[in-house]
Design a protein that fits this description.
The strands form 2 sheets. The chain has an 8-stranded antiparallel beta barrel with strand order 1-2-3-5-6-7-8-11. A two-stranded antiparallel ribbon has the order 9-10. By secondary structure, it is mostly beta strands. It starts with a helix and ends with a strand. It has a single domain, classed as Porin. It is elongated, with a radius of gyration of 21 Å. The protein has 1 helix and 11 strands.
């Protein structure tokens, strides 16, 4: 199942759950319309990296995002966010000197700045949504080791654009519903070229499950 299919499947499940939950709270008082509100958001959670033949046995450590956004209309919001993820892979075969030893695992970290658009379906305090965006990312692969017993590391990096898709649901709470907690699925498609140490480009993106917090004002 590709990233678009996975995002679509998650979106259908989330919208169905939100519709059922909204029907259950139909007797609650109406909530304010959030059109025109600005907000900050924080998301963090698990990371399942895409597999690559050149860098096998990938293990995602974490993903997180911190950003600012604005509710353009009742159904549309835009946002800008800082993104970070980290993973470990098997160290590629790299020629080294006789007295140099490399660790068996390498660390790959990605940082970037992305812009997203979310399409929202308000259901009272519940708000399911889908969205996506594009960002510019810097990815660095670091391999620790030692030479003559002295610690050191080899670092290779690459810069490039990546595409992400989002699907999530939030629940707004409080008297003025300025706070929300939610869950979000996202997939990031991002290639990196680490030079001759790794043959060809590798996909350093993957799938994320985030817990989200949003503060509107």
């Amino acid at each position: 199942m590709n990233s678009i299919s996975r995002t679509l499947a998650v979106s259908i499940a989330i919208f169905h759950f939100a519709d059922v939950a909204h029907a259950a709270e139909a007797t609650q008082p109406p909530v304010p319309d959030r059109m025109g509100w600005n907000y900050i958001h924080f998301s963090a959670g698990s990371f399942s990296p895409d597999s690559n033949a050149q860098l096998p046995n990938a293990n995602g450590h974490y993903g997180l995002a911190l950003g600012f956004g604005s509710r353009y209309s009742r159904h549309v919001a835009w946002e800008v966010e800082f993104f970070n993820s980290d993973q470990a892979v098997d160290t590629p075969s790299i020629p080294t000197g006789f007295f140099t030893v490399l660790d068996q695992r390498a660390d790959i970290s990605t940082v970037g700045l992305a812009g997203n658009v979310r399409f929202i379906y308000p259901l009272g305090r519940f708000e399911p949504y889908v969205g996506g965006g594009i960002g510019f990312y810097r990815t660095e692969m670091e391999i620790s080791g030692s030479t003559f017993g002295l610690p050191g590391s080899l670092k290779k990096n690459d810069n490039g654009f990546g595409l992400q898709l989002l699907a999530g649901m939030e629940y707004y709470f409080g008297q003025r519903t300025q706070h929300s907690l939610g869950v979000q699925y996202r997939t990031l498609s991002l290639d990196a070229d680490f030079g001759r140490e790794v043959a060809g480009k590798v996909n350093v993106g993957g799938d994320f499950w985030f817990l989200t917090y949003r503060r509107s004002f």
